[in-house]
Specification:
Blueprint lengths: L7 E2 L5 E2 L3 E3 L15 H11 L5 E3 L3 E2 L11 E2 L6 H11 L5 E7 L14 E2 L7 H4 L6 E2 L2 H21 L3 E6 L4 H6 L14 H4 L1 H14 L5 E6 L10 H14 L3 E5 L15 H6 L4 H7 L7 E4 L5 H9 L5 E4 L1 H5 L3 H6 L16 H5 L2 H15 L10 H21 L1
Parallel strand pairs: 3-4, 3-14, 4-7, 5-6, 5-7, 7-10, 8-9, 10-11, 11-12, 12-13, 13-14
Antiparallel strand pairs: 1-2
Helix pairs in contact: 1-2, 1-15, 2-4, 4-7, 15-16
Length: 407
């Protein structure tokens, strides 16, 4: 039976040293010019020392005009190649695989950060959220082609810098996810309508990236199991997309779910049966196994060594995805592998402000604060007040937006 310490061989022949996968978290640690910083290098050097098999970066944007947050790293040319090399060198220590997650936010961009938002179609968010976002305009086909090429170009630069793989972010309500969802994609051309058309954007990005980086460079995809919204992307559709990706030769599929509108990836509204098995999307992964031979990663909910072992041994997932736990316990895989810990507890972070708590914004800001501490070389602070974290984030983001406007 497969164990957590066992190696994993990807379809392209690349060997991963164990079954721990540090999933992406948006760090917000770029400078005002969206370049990597010393804090970012220190953060990933720390995670490289955790003994995780694969460490995935947070959102790296393919277009400076499209930022999900003020301090996203942007890679659209080679002008910051030396900084990227420092980042890659730090994050690949100890035989760690460091994959750059590349992304375009589409309409999921906050007001004040970008001049305009773009999307497959001009479809607004629910009113309670739309006030925080500019209304997106529909992309023209030539712009879609340009974005596909941008993904490939960013992946090429990542390879040149020394990153050992890339992950295409096709989940959590960002642009690829928007194209997949019939709720957000109302197009009537070849990029919308049927599932075959809606998945075309993702598949064309994969093909173009593969063409640029070659067969031996790993390409992964982060994909929603579902949007968990009425008229959204369904589990049945997700299985068809996974089948198509497997057919094209994808190296690794990370399964997640939800978006800003329905933040299922944070554990909200999780069924009792799911809580019993810990991981939020393990049941879906079991179904995905039936249609795909590609290695799978399930992220979200893992808290105990026994739960992780069970998921690996029963074959429901090829790797254990850990995100928020490694923001608080950055060396967690090492602690599990060497018998120094058998479980952790992460309590929900609540401010008492209904809108903030319901949209999981506080969860994001609280964990971002922990990443900031690691990047500064400080110990994490599990007892940090949620309200303090929120105020610090609001202050920081306000300053960041101001700096961006000056730049």
């Amino acid at each position: 039976m497969t164990q957590l310490h066992d190696k994993l061989l990807l379809p392209n022949g690349v060997e991963i040293k164990n079954r721990f996968f540090k999933a992406a978290m948006s760090e917000g640690m770029a400078d005002e010019y969206n370049r990597p910083t010393k804090k970012l290098v220190r953060l990933y050097e720390t995670w490289a020392e955790s003994e995780a098999g694969i460490v995935v970066t947070g959102n790296v944007m393919v277009d400076k005009r499209a930022l999900g947050e003020p301090r996203n790293v942007v890679v659209e040319n080679e002008k910051d190649l030396d900084l990227l090399k420092l980042w890659a060198k730090a994050g690949t220590k100890n035989g760690t695989q460091l994959w750059m997650q590349i992304n375009h936010p589409g309409k999921q961009v906050f007001k004040g950060i970008v001049k305009e938002a773009v999307a497959p179609s001009q479809v607004e968010f629910e009113p309670k959220l739309q006030r925080y976002f500019p209304v997106a305009r529909e992309l023209q086909e030539k712009e879609i082609i340009d974005i596909i090429q941008r993904f490939a170009h960013t992946a090429t630069i990542a390879k040149k810098a020394g990153f050992t793989g890339v992950q295409l972010h096709g989940a959590h309500g960002y642009l690829i996810s928007q194209f997949l969802s019939p709720r957000h994609n109302k197009r009537t051309d070849k990029w919308g309508g049927s599932l075959e058309n809606r998945m075309r954007f993702l598949l064309e990005i994969y093909r173009k990236v593969r063409e640029q980086v070659g067969e031996s460079f790993p390409i992964g995809v982060k994909l929603n199991s579902a949007d968990f919204m009425k008229a959204g992307f369904t589990e049945e559709e997700a299985l068809q997309v996974i089948k198509a990706l497997d057919h094209l030769g994808i190296d690794l599929i990370e399964i997640s779910g939800g978006s800003y509108e329905s933040p299922q990836m944070t554990g909200v509204n999780v069924k009792k049966s799911t809580k019993k098995r810990e991981a939020y999307f393990l049941e879906f992964a079991t179904e995905a196994r039936k249609v795909s031979t590609a290695p799978l990663v399930v992220t979200g909910g893992f808290r105990s060594l026994s739960g992780m072992k069970e998921a690996i041994m029963e074959g429901a997932t090829s790797m254990v995805g850990l995100a928020r736990p490694m923001a608080v316990y950055p060396y967690l895989p090492k602690e599990f592998l060497h018998g120094k810990r058998d479980s952790i507890e992460l309590e929900p972070r609540k401010t008492g402000i209904k809108l903030v708590d319901q949209t999981a914004m506080l969860e994001l800001t609280w964990y971002s604060n922990q990443l900031e501490r690691i990047g500064k070389g400080e110990a994490t602070k599990p007892g940090l007040s949620p309200k303090v974290a929120l105020m610090q984030s609001l202050w920081k983001n306000g300053l960041d937006v101001f700096q961006m406007r000056r730049v």
